[in-house]
Amino acid sequence: MVCCLALAANAVLGHIPLNEYHLAEPDAPQYYVSYSPSPRAGRDNSLERVTAVRQVMRGRGVDAYIVPTADPHNSAYIAPAHARREWLSGLRGSSGTVLVTETLALVWTDARYFTQFENEVNMTVFTLMRQGIDVSIQNWLVQNMPPYSVVGVDHTTYTRSSWNSLQNALTQVNVTLEATTDNLVDIARAAIGEPAPAIPNNPLIPLNVSFTGRRSSEKIAELLAQLPARGVSALVLTALDDVAYTLNIRGSDIPYNPVFFSYLVLRSDLQAPNNVILFWGNGVLPANITEHLSSEGTQIRVRPYDAIFTYLADMANELPIGSTVWLSQDGSHAIYSAVETNGTLNILATLNSPVALMKCIKNEVELKGFRSAHVKDGIAVVRAFRWLEEQVAAGANITEMDLSDKLQELRYEEEDSHGPSFSTIAGAGENGAMIHYSPSREGVQKVIRKEDMVLVDSGGQYKDGTTDLTRTRHMSASPTPEERRAFTLVMKGQIQLATTVFPRGTVGHTLESFARKYLWDVGLTYGHGTGHGIGHFLNVHEGPSWILSGPSATDPGLAAGMIMSNEPGYYEVGHYGIRHEDVVEIIVMNNSSDHPLAKGMVGDFGGIGALGFYTISLAPHQTACLNVSLLTDFEIEYLNDYHARVLATLGPVLKARELDDDYAWLERECAPIRSAAIGKSAPFLLVVFVSLWSYVSM
Ligand SMILES: *[C@@H]1O[C@H](CO)[C@@H](O)[C@H](O)[C@H]1NC(C)=O
Ligand SMILES: *[C@@H]1O[C@H](CO)[C@@H](O)[C@H](O)[C@H]1NC(C)=O
Ligand SMILES: *[C@@H]1O[C@H](CO)[C@@H](O)[C@H](O)[C@H]1NC(C)=O
Ligand SMILES: *[C@@H]1O[C@H](CO)[C@@H](O)[C@H](O)[C@H]1NC(C)=O
Ligand SMILES: *[C@@H]1O[C@H](CO)[C@@H](O)[C@H](O)[C@H]1NC(C)=O
Ligand SMILES: *[C@@H]1O[C@H](CO)[C@@H](O)[C@H](O)[C@H]1NC(C)=O
Ligand SMILES: *[C@@H]1O[C@H](CO)[C@@H](O)[C@H](O)[C@H]1NC(C)=O
Ligand SMILES: *[C@@H]1O[C@H](CO)[C@@H](O)[C@H](O)[C@H]1NC(C)=O
């Protein structure tokens, strides 16, 4: 999915709200997260909401209160229970921070949401602060808060590094940054009869070793072995996907992300089962999960989710003075503070948790699962596109939302489907140019017309893998010359990146401009990143490696077995949007690899190891939208080979299911393209030419 807007790249706040952690580098483009966690807050009662928050602030002696978009786990997507900024301001979308003072209510957001702000927010109550243009929230506080005033923030919604940065700045001007242990917005919500939804605690899903390839006991043993090696007594895992991956359990507490609210602590100073402690729900696991864990040889203790803070404080008292606790840098200030309660422990804060580094390299079973998930997903996508084009051609009124629903319905027909991996982006015509666009049931229902270019970015969660695919199709295969050129240049960039060979350990951002080269050649570009890692039946955006235009501090370097997206685009605001996105597996390159450059490989970078990408997404590109004369023979062959593989893989499945119309559509879409220079009668002419030449040169 989607990436998105780098226009806001210089717009990073002086502090970094938890869920924007990976934007820590000022030049890193943002990956867009589309979600709509709660019904739009009405504009008519905005003042009532803000007044309720001010009242709670006064009671606590807080002069300014920061409401970021974040949950206690630095999740990229948050549950409605944590969507406080949205409730308060009415601004939907993925990014924004509200600051409430006695007299002002300010909303910082980035360029993606400036227009949305005007549409959704009551502007007599709230003032827009444009990130990257107006003063940052940190500088605003420094300049405007009087000495000895108090700025408050819920310390579960701020990472330690964000906290430190803000606290240092405020200390300079004698302003106190205070951690409010209760969330003041939640208190205000309850006070005016709009209580926050409860933190979800949905049923857990055991994930068998036939999907994960590795028992939880093996993962835990590997982690426990790292503790003495690092000289630490305990490891605290705070990211929800880290816990889910380690225990081979999934959930559904956050939309699109099959995770569950929890923490996991591993201790080297205790014996099993006391050395692995899960904080979840009320502290009692259901029988199927206990059985699942014991079938994997895993013994754990379970405590209530909320008990993490007192547990860490108690642990600080139990561990010998000078012991070290391992946290990842994206842990919340609240978690760090709990570990520091006694003041006798050291903290090892790493850029990535050890689980983040384990789970980004997929094992053979996970890779096999990814490929199988992409076959199923390809079937659903082919069926949806065939349906769409037939309907549009017949003059039916198909809206973007109808297409989104159809994709979801067809994905659910596939085995082990667990719904969409993010909110479908189906943008017809000018909507395709809004990179963060997602049709919604509440908004205007746009009908897809025959003359529209439609950008469809969607993905599915399956027990064996997670998918993320974008195809751009013109409903009557007759794009304008500008659309055709952009469609082709984006395709050339995607092929260029897809076929790049690079040394093992190369960081993603050094490859990024390959995808932009052909657009850059003519003075065009796109405002989002080009690739993100993808979790295995986990988050569709998974660190620590990214393919962005700027460096990413967390990137350990690309390695075989990683799964990434390859998604260049081009957007003509007000007219159309184009994005071609595939999921790729990182493979070892040598002269026998399944890669167009394999045969030419004569080295492996002096023993470092050569890597390349192998595209696992299976869905035809609309070759009718290409300007073939802009393609090289290599690119034509690449596309023809890809389409032959798509047909050979998906075709038999469609036939076996007697989906004959879908098969016919796929066969047509996968037909090879020929070089424009040679034309349709090429094989015949070539034979004649070769024969003549042989004759003449004899
Ligand atoms: C915005 O809030 C003010 C103050 O409560 C109210 O008078 C006005 O009607 C609201 N505007 C909209 C568009 O609801
Ligand atoms: C901060 O407090 C210190 C000590 O009370 C004082 O010397 C200094 O002038 C104050 N600075 C500001 C900016 O108020
Ligand atoms: C789990 O996977 C194992 C190994 O593939 C298999 O033997 C077993 O039947 C599976 N169990 C379930 C409940 O699917
Ligand atoms: C720190 O732990 C020690 C040992 O349990 C205890 O005696 C002391 O009171 C604790 N200090 C604080 C500040 O909690
Ligand atoms: C589609 O909608 C248009 C106007 O919105 C209407 O005129 C037309 O009859 C509709 N067509 C069908 C097939 O429903
Ligand atoms: C294809 O590109 C060539 C070279 O830029 C251009 O001359 C030609 O008009 C384009 N064809 C179409 C159909 O857009
Ligand atoms: C090429 O790489 C693959 C994957 O690492 C390996 O299995 C194979 O043996 C290698 N082949 C050669 C000729 O080095
Ligand atoms: C492929 O590489 C291997 C190992 O370097 C070498 O022995 C072999 O001759 C190469 N094969 C070809 C066809 O070049």
From TrEMBL:
All copies of domain Peptidase M24, residue ranges: 370-586
InterPro entries in the record: Creatin/AminoP/Spt16_N, Creatinase/aminopeptidase-like, Creatinase_N, Pept_M24, Peptidase_M24_C, X-Pro_aminopeptidase_P
Domain Peptidase M24 C-terminal: 610-673
Domain (Creatinase N-terminal): residue spans on this chain: 49-175
Keywords: Hydrolase, Metal-binding
Keyword Hydrolase: yes
Protein name, entry field: Uncharacterized protein
